[in-house]
Design brief:
Layout (H helix, E strand, L loop, with lengths): L1 H27 L3 E6 L5 H9 L2 H18 L13 E7 L6 E4 L2 E5 H6 L4 H17 L9 H14 L20 H14 L3 H8 L7 H5 L5 H11 L10
Parallel strand pairs: 1-2, 2-4
Antiparallel strand pairs: 3-4
Length: about 240
C-alpha cells in the first residue's frame, strides 16, 4: 500500500513538472501574428489571395520566427526582443517589395502582382528577410545598414529562399554592400566559425564596432573580406538586381 502511494505521488509530481515546462514554453512562444490584406481586388491583392493566402501567411510568420530564433541561438526570452505582436500588411503602394518597422511588415501588392516567377516562394523569402529585422539586434542603430540588410538576407539564404538573381559567392565590391553581397560574405564567415552570425548578432545588442569581427574568427573584417575574395579568385564584379 505504501509503495503504491509513493508511485502515485511520484506520478503526480512528474505530471506537474511537465505541465509547468509546457506552460513556460507556451509563454516564451506567445507572439500574436495578424495578417491584413488591404490590397482588395487589385491585381496584387487577387494574386495574393489566389496563390498565397492569409492562412499560409499566418503559418509562415511563426515558422520564420522559430527559424530565426534557432539560427540566432536565442533560446529564451532574455535573448530576444520583447515583441508581443507582429502584423503583416499587404498594401497597394509604391516603393520597395517589402519593408518592416514598429513590429509591422508591409508587402507591396504591386510587386506581388507583377512578379514573373514563383510568387509564393518569393513572398516566403521576403517574410523571412523582414521577420529578421523584427528580431535582430542593430547595435542601437550604430551598425552599418549594409550589415543589417546582409544579416536579413543571410537568414533568407540559410532558409533556402535565395532567389536565382542573387550575386554568386565572391561577388561584390565591399563587405558591407548589403543584401545578397553581404549575405554571401557572412555565409563564408559562418563556415569559418560555426555560429558566427549568431554571436555577431548577440554582440550587436547594445552597440557596434567593426572589431567584433576580429573577436570572433580572429581576423579583422577587411582581412576576412580579402580572404573571401581570394578564395574565389577575385574574379567577380558587383552584380545586384
Amino acid at each position: 500500500m505504501k509503495l503504491a502511494m509513493l508511485r502515485l505521488r511520484h506520478s503526480f509530481l512528474l505530471s506537474v513538472l511537465l505541465l509547468s515546462l509546457a506552460a513556460i514554453r507556451t509563454t516564451e512562444a506567445a507572439v500574436e501574428y495578424v495578417v491584413n490584406n488591404n490590397a482588395g481586388s487589385s491585381r496584387g491583392g487577387t494574386r495574393f489571395t489566389n496563390e498565397i493566402g492569409t492562412d499560409y501567411s499566418r503559418q509562415t510568420l511563426p515558422s520564420a520566427t522559430d527559424f530565426i530564433w534557432r539560427l540566432f541561438q536565442q533560446n529564451n526570452d532574455a535573448d530576444r526582443k520583447n515583441v508581443p505582436k507582429v502584423t503583416l500588411f499587404i498594401d497597394n503602394m509604391n516603393g520597395p517589395p517589402a519593408y518592416s518597422g514598429n513590429n509591422e511588415i508591409h508587402v507591396n501588392a504591386n510587386y506581388v502582382g507583377n512578379y514573373p516567377g514563383d510568387v509564393k516562394r518569393e513572398f516566403t523569402g521576403m517574410l523571412f528577410h523582414e521577420m529578421t529585422h523584427i528580431w535582430q539586434w542593430d547595435g542601437n542603430q550604430q551598425a552599418p545598414r549594409g550589415l543589417i540588410e546582409g544579416i536579413a538576407d543571410f537568414v533568407r539564404l540559410k532558409a533556402s529562399y535565395a532567389p536565382s538573381h542573387w550575386v554568386k559567392a565572391g561577388q561584390g565590391d565591399r563587405w558591407d554592400d548589403g543584401y545578397d553581397v553581404t549575405a554571401r560574405f557572412l555565409d563564408y564567415c559562418n563556415d569559418l566559425k560555426n555560429g558566427f552570425v549568431a554571436e555577431l548578432n548577440k554582440k550587436m545588442r547594445n552597440g557596434y564596432n567593426d572589431n567584433y569581427f576580429a573577436e570572433l574568427p580572429g581576423k579583422s573584417v577587411d582581412q576576412l573580406w580579402n580572404d573571401y575574395k581570394a578564395k574565389y579568385g577575385g574574379m567577380w564584379s558587383s552584380v545586384s538586381i
